Amino acid sequence: MTMTRTIKTIAAILLLFLSGCGYYNPYVADSNSHPITLSRPLWINNTGEIGLENTMDRSLSNWLRKSKLIHLVNNPSQADYELTGTLLDINYPEISYGNNLLANELRANLRVRFTIIDHNNKEAVWTQKNRTFTETLSMSANPITLQANEKEALAKITNDIAETIYLHIINHIMRLQKAD
């Protein structure tokens, strides 16, 4: 009786293993696909946060270089797609309070706009006109510590934005190419 149960369990696991679960590994190019070319000019920074556009660019570069399915180019005329974006504004509302009603935590809210344009038909394939990404940070009476906490929160936010864009490209644009 336990032998039959063991065989059934092994057969079920083997069947699951062989059939897969529909997982698609975005880091591996299949033999039928060719990489898309993508240009990404430096984003416009309207936040007043010096260097945030460079942090965004590094995050995008780090994510987009993870896959062999995406080839980054500097010249938009050589690209299949172009990613443009604007860092619109940032604010730090207080979200929790401690003794004497002093803030303990802040939330960094970065509002962005970005578009991916297909150069073949000159149409936007994905547009986010007003998207806000957030990250919590600790408040500090020391301005140097507070500034470091803000920079860390912004680095996490730009990483989240870049990851969102990367996953969208892999999951949607690459599927569009396979349909062609």
Tell me about this structure.
The protein is of the alpha/beta class. It has one domain: Lipoprotein like domain (Double Stranded RNA Binding Domain, 2-Layer Sandwich). The chain is built from 3 helices and 7 strands, in the order αββαβββββα. Strands 1, 2, 3, 4, 5, 6 and 7 form a 7-stranded mixed beta sheet that branches. A hairpin with a 5-residue loop joins β5 (94-97) and β6 (103-118). α2 (52-64) packs across α3.
For the largest beta-sheet, the strand count, sense and barrel status come to: 7 strands, mixed
Number of helices: 3
The CATH topology corresponds to Double Stranded RNA Binding Domain
Instruction: State the separation between the terminal residues, measured CA to CA.
Output: 53 Å
List keywords for this structure.
32% strand, Double Stranded RNA Binding Domain, 3 helices, 180 residues, 7 strands, seven-stranded mixed beta sheet, alpha/beta, 38% helix
Indicate the topology:
Elements: H1 2-19, E1 36-39, E2 44-45, H2 52-64, E3 70-73, E4 81-91, E5 94-97, E6 103-118, E7 123-138, H3 143-179
Parallel strand pairs: 1-3, 1-4, 2-4
Antiparallel strand pairs: 4-6, 5-6, 6-7
